[in-house]
Each structure stands twice: as structure tokens, then as C-alpha cells.
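for the writeup, i need someone to sanity check this before i put it in the appendix. the sequnce is what the collaborator sent (i think, or maybe the updated version? ugh). structure was predicted straight from it, no edits. if anything looks off just tell me and ill rerun, i have time this weekend
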Amino acid sequence: MTHPLLQVRDLRVAFGGKEVVHGVNFSIAPGEKLALVGESGSGKTVTALALLRLVQNAEITGSASLFGPGPQQLGPHASLPPEGALAPRGGPSALGQRDLLSISERALRGIRGDEVAMIFQEPMTALNPLFSVGDQIAEVLELKQALSKRQAWDAAIEALAATGIPEPARRAQSFPHQLSGGQRQRAMIAMALACRPRLLLADEPTTALDVTLRIQILELLSDLQRQTGMAVLMITHDLNLVRKFADRVAVMEDGHLVEEGAVACVFTDPQHAYTRKLIDSRPARDVVAQTAAASGSPVMRANGLRVGYAVPIPGVRGWFRKGEFVAVKGANFSVPPGRTLGIVGESGSGKSTLALAALGLIPYSGELQAMGRRWGPDAAGNQAIRRRVQVVFQDPFSSLSPRMTVEEIVGEGLLVHEPGLSAADRRERVIAALADVGMGEAQSFVAGPSQDEKHLLGGQQATRSEGARGQYFPGLLQRYPHEFSGGQRQRLAIARALIVQPQLLVLDEPTSALDVTIQKQVLQLLQKLQRERGLSYLLITHDVDVIRAMAHEVMVMKNGEVLETGPVDQVLDRPAHPYTRILVAAQD
């Protein structure tokens, strides 16, 4: 190659005069896969958004030169006629060099989504809730490729099918809230790839996907690269994904690019201390032995648990009756005291539906007991049981009210379950719950932090937590969720659940939105709480490494059915079902 596809020089991004990205330099060749890795707040997402000037109220300097295809690339591209959603890029009009940071907004609009596309991290906020996903993909094709509505709709279905989404024609008619997290992510990927861009900026494109679908998406991106020479800048905290997909890796810390090189070289011989810290952040197992806490009646037991949803029937028959989609088909399980049952499976396998039933939030048939009593939406004595069964959701930012302070969020459960507490007693309980998860107001809460642990949070000094070390936040109780990082918000969510002294925590993908170092901290915290309090966990995840670290028993689900269950070492080290073997192999 005589020139790269994208060349970034001295990229700096500042907000209100405060610089958050400091002179970043990198380049991407046509057909190359570059991974940008780092912790939350390292500046990697801001760097990608700045390339398309999508960061509001930001001062962006430097250059980001996008080069047209050279003669060696132009020929193969020109020989492939455009077909529907997946028309190859390239042509005489694409030749030349343009600085994405200095061209006009009108010129940049012609590049966005066409030559340079982006997959955003959170599809629920990136997709329009008022339009079906098919309409949103078709709109891109109508605007960028001048297809008719019929052609654009057919191409949108093909784009969805290319991402591996089941029943693409039916899913195209669904609104974002009617899809699972993984299905929404695939719809976002289909939208970004619809016009076959020359450069794809992928911000955590597989965060909400299970391990098998991650491999499918990586294979899809690789196929498109072979066909069109598309380059990918992938932003991720999944180091396994980087090993399997990327050609080169660039490591960011606090807005600085600290290390860059070929994946094999960086992972086998990292030069920077921060890179070594990321590589060493694989979840570690530190739970009570399987035989130590198995006595006693199960805190939750299910026998023949079945959950079905009404779905419309097409045609005249749908005027008179509804069909049924069975999401969970006769599941049997039990959660002993002080132990963890891990449920693993792909998107749409029924594991989140099972979690909703376990929380007593949706109707079901069959038998479900919590604390030895019948449990469900219409069961008597629900409030008493609900105190014993609490939940930690996947995305702490959306599960914590932005209008409530930390004291109000954590103490809310006490208003319901212990209304007789005085305000002073309630505050004392809130402070104790926050201390249990490693967060406090008093500076003495942290013993001897080192200088490299200190950072600024909302203009106040704080300290990072490693394992049992706490975090110091002046004015903690009066702060709001947006003033905390993702890992800190997840600690607040755990404190909110713990304050009512539950016996069972339902953990719905508690670490999937966190980078590897924060994920390890949260898992260490959950393991510590289980050892000290004898808590039981129902852990929903698609991450086999998290299951290995946390679970005593594991249950594998696919299409609503339980395929395999047993001790974690038996199921993961000697899987009996072919699907389980695929899951384990995809994670390794």
C-alpha cells in the first residue's frame, strides 16, 4: 500500500478547555483490523466519535485524513455491481484525500454511513423506538443508495439475515423494545453494514452478544473485508475478541496511546505496565467449595417451569385469537443456600425470561418456590418474599434513576420493607450498605492509597478500588448516578439490593457492560459478599469465563430448553451436549 485508508495525527479532544484525548496518532490500512482497547474513561470511544465529529460541545484539533482507494483496490470494487444492501464501495468519486476534521458538515454527511459507518455501543438508545428496525435499515438504503421502498425493505431483510438474526422477515417488523439485547445489537450491525462502508468504527459491537454469536459477527466482518477491503477500527474491552479478530492493537490509558503493535507481539510481550494489567485481568475463581454450603433447603426451586407469550397470528385467523411463543420449556432447577447457579446460553435462549420468572414479575405455569413458598405475580405474601429475592440488572446506568441521589437510590428499599425506620437510622443503614460494596464518604475509609490509584471524579479526589480496597467520595450520599463510572454504578446497584438483607440475588449480566479490570473487581466483590453473608446467586450470563469464576452449578439453555446441567467443572471441562462444546470452544 502506498498510503493508508485513514491516518490520524495529533488528535486532541477537549471539553470546556479540559483535554481528555492527548495527541493520539495511528493509521489503518485498507482491509486492516485495528483494536482500540482500554478501561472505561480511557478515551477510546471519544476518539472514535471525534473522527466523525459526533461529540457534542467538544474542541477537536489535529487531522484525520481519509484516503480514496488506490488503483489496485479500485479495479476489483468497480467490477462488482451494487446489489441491494450490500453494494461494494469504491469508484472514481472516492479518490483523493479528505480531512474528516476540517471538511464541511455537508461533505461529512455524505461520508457518514456511506464510506465510514459506526456501530454504537448501546443499541437501545441508538435505535429509534418509534420505527421498526426494518424501516430504520431501509431508510439508510433509500437515502444512500437511492433504492425504492420495496428494494430497500428486501435489502434490509437480507442485511438482518446476514447478521444471523432468526426469522429476519418477522424481526424486521419488530420495534427495538420487542427484541432482546443481542437482537438489537445485530440490527444495529446490519444498519451499519448495509452500505458496505470502506471503514467501520465498531464501538463494543459484540457486548450484548453471547460467545457463539460473537464468532458469527466476527466471521461476517471478515467476509465483508475479503469482498470489499473494508477496514475496521474496533473499540472493545474483550481481549479474547481482540486475539481472534484484530491484526493490530492500540492500548489507551487516560487519553494517551501507551502501546501499539501486532496483536501477537503485544499479548505475548507487553511493554507497558498498563497493558500487562489488562492482560492479567481475567476473572479469578474465589468461591466457597461446592460441598461447604450445600446443606439446607433450596432458597429457590423450579419444577416444569414454563413461560409463554401471546403473539399475533398473520391473516384473518389473527382477528379471533393469538398464537403463543414459548420462551421457557419445562425448566427444572434449584439454588441451594450460599451457592451460585449459572445460566448460560445465546440471545433468545430464554435465560432472561427465566430470570424474570424467578423475580416473580411474569406469569408462568409449573412449580416455582422461593424460601419454601409459592412465588409469582399472583402469589400471597409476595412482599415478604420480594425482600428476600433482589436483582442486579445488566446496565446500571439505565436501572438507576438519574433524578435520585445515592442516598435515595440505596435507601428506597427500606421505605417499602421497613417503613418504621427513622431518617437517621435509614441513613446509617445506607452508609453501611455502601461500605459493604467498597464505597464511603470518609477519607479514613481507604487505608494508604498509592499515588497511582488517585484520580479525579467530579472535581473531587477519589481512589480506585482493587479487590477489598475501598473508594473515597466526598459528599457521596448527595451525588447522582452520572457522576460515577460504570463499575461504581454497578456497586451502587449491588448496595441497593443488599440493603434489605436478601437471601438470593438474581444477577442479570452484571459485568457485560464493564471493562476487564472493573469486571474483575465486581466479581471479587460478589465472591466476597457470598462468603461473608452466605448469599445465593442466580447468575445470568453469556460469558463462560464469568461462569467459571462464580458458579457452583451451571445450566445451559438454548431455544427455551435446558440442554445440560451439573457442576461447573463437569459441564465446562467435560461437556456432554454438542452445543455446550461450541460455547466452551468459542470462549477459549
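Residues 211-228 form the longest helix (18 residues). Confidence is low (pLDDT under 50) at residues 70-94, 443-469.
thx in advance!!
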